[in-house]
# Entry
Amino acid sequence: MRFNIPALPPIQPQFIVQVLLTLAASLLTLRLGAGLAAWRVANNLEKPNYTVVRRLPISPPSRGNIEIRKYDSYLIAETTVDETSMRKAGASGFGKCAGYIFGKNEPRTKGIESEKMAMTAPVRSVGNAGEKMAMTSPVRSSGSTNSSGKTKISFVIGSKYSLQNVPKPIDKSVQIKKVKEHYLAATSFSGPPPSDEKISTSREAIVQTLQKEGIRVKDKEETIVYGYHDPVITPNFLRKNEVAVTVDGSSVQ
# Structure
């Protein structure tokens, strides 16, 4: 017995295009939804306390303003990376500091298990901008580079901890340090983790602005970079980055 199976009508190109557009729109909606959720979570994280002392328009070609801030003291978990590029160092050092925050630590009180600590912001990078940094192909986000070719990356530790009760890192390359009260001149911008060229250009604009105002830079080589949002889930247009230098508080009027 034979069955006559009717031929299926040909699939029209317009139908394929419509399906692909619908799929792309759905994926974009999911991506933006997840990114917005991550952005909101990051914005609610605990951050170091500071007071804005002055606001100054930044020197061209940079855009925006500079905030002169007075920071209270706070604790950081810091690691040093053998890398002159602050962006590359951030990618490498992030994991070590995050590991400490998420449980690779030893409580000060014996008999208590390791502690998963609350996330804070920003990720802090500190480096040396004595020379123009090379362009590279990202969290104190704070990282540090110095003349020896090393960069310091650190996470801010929540204010509920002190040097007496903060858990000890299991990884010996992570150290707990106290950042004393200080003044900082910072400029903010959105986008992906900044390239070394962007960091260097922003620092030069900050320094030029401070010189015009008679405000003294405390360390002529150090550069601080803060990252407030993750570089993967949060869309770049929602990400907040900052480049900053420490300043002499007695020169701030």
In short: The longest helix spans residues 13-43.
